[in-house]
Amino acid sequence: MAIRLITSRLSHSSSSSLASLFQGRNSRVAATAALRYTTAAQDPIKPSVNVEYTKLFINGQFVDSASGKTFPTLDPRTGEVIAHVAEGDVEDINRAVVAARNAFDEGPWPKMSAYERSKILFRIADLIEKHNDEIATLETWDSGKLYQQVATIEIPMIVRLLRYYAGWADKIHGMTVPADGPYHVQTLHEPIGVVGQIIPWNFPLLMFAWKIGPALACGNTVVLKTAEQTPLSALYVSKLLQEAGLPEGVLNVISGFGPTAGAALSSHMDVDKLAFTGSTDTGKTIMSLAANSNLKPVTLELGGKSPFIVCEDADVDQAVESAHFALFFNQGQCCCAGSRTYVHESIYDEFVEKAKARALKRTVGDPFESSNEQGPQISSEQFEKVLKYIRSGIESGATLETGGDRLGTQGYYIKPTVFSNVKDDMLIATDEIFGPVQSILKFKDHDEVIRRANATKYGLAAGVFTKNIDTANTFMRALRVGTIWINCFDIFDAAIPFGGYKMSGQGREKGEYSLKQYLQVKAVVTSLKNPAWL
To answer: Catalytic residue at 301?
Structure first.
């Protein structure tokens, strides 16, 4: 997931995005083109950090799970165990919700001034920035994502986002509303209460920040469940919360599994609101659990099958590089990945050849090696799922231009894969693969590609490449998605809202829009006697 931002690690007058970070590697990549899918080393690089925090974080303390159970978290580079982490279950969710409820009803957090809350959020951001390298190492080790990506882009993005919401904390207020008759009417924007949050494995700490930033800025308390594949970074950051002065019980972090801890959180009668990022199918389950318990409101950021549309007037070389990035970034494990690449028939053959050549230049290997562009998939389950979709593409008649198999014999590495002659009804064009598989489809005219791009249950994002402003304006209004990037892709900012249409979710993350998800609006009407004016 890319972001254009200013960070302390870059010049304060410059702007950086992941797209430019990886495009800057083209010269190094070209040098290794003859080697094709190169791997950095036979033996994985040993991470320079110890795993210290593996317990649940409840009421300001690290504690064992009530059952005493643990589960292994694995290194995607090898499939070997990194550490055993406490396995939270129903009883642990109950303990965390009690802590969060007491912190909200009796504790200082919602009662302290918004300015005091903002100072604590600023301190959390400062501490994450201070411990950048340790956090980035844990994140890479646990998830397989590139170390350079985490250390130079994702963590600065987290810091920026927390500071953004720290700035919002004392700017949340209601309104005075004119009404017919002798009444003074005002609205209060109040914290909603105890918030349950469930985050995914593809951007573990980034999604942690997207969730807790607006929730805490509004004065809520939180019970957050990590993805079982990637618990380590959130548990590490939990210890920084204490150092920053966050009161006990305000933020509780539970590592555990969806059917147990996740279901318990979603159906808990004392949780006032839920926020979830993950698959559409799991989102449906969470909505059902929320509805069948206390009808708690739910924010969902779900799956996608985003179209990347290359018009006849596009700069082909730029479009090839951007389409490559839009799909292969983060091993293809992005909800908004440009996974349906629609190319106008007049430039289709040229685009396919150049997309194939770019994929062949992509360096795959140990994510701790700075020369690599792609690490392993997150798990054996996801690895097998991607390979299954690749086989489906071949069997359904798409042309396999390159890739199509695992890379090496250790870990969950997959060769960058490109299909051409893809049809709309093939599974590789309809399903969210969540892997390094690019599907390139051909179109004749704009009306046709708009219709085909919209013919999906998803509506998260889209990319459009064109030099014509009228064409861009047509697409930006016609495509039924939550975000459209014109002549770019994966550009994020703390202030830009993110979310989907249709089965890609409901509600918005980031920006001012996300604050509304964590507030109640109360109307207060006071009778006036002999008012001087109305």
So the answer is: yes
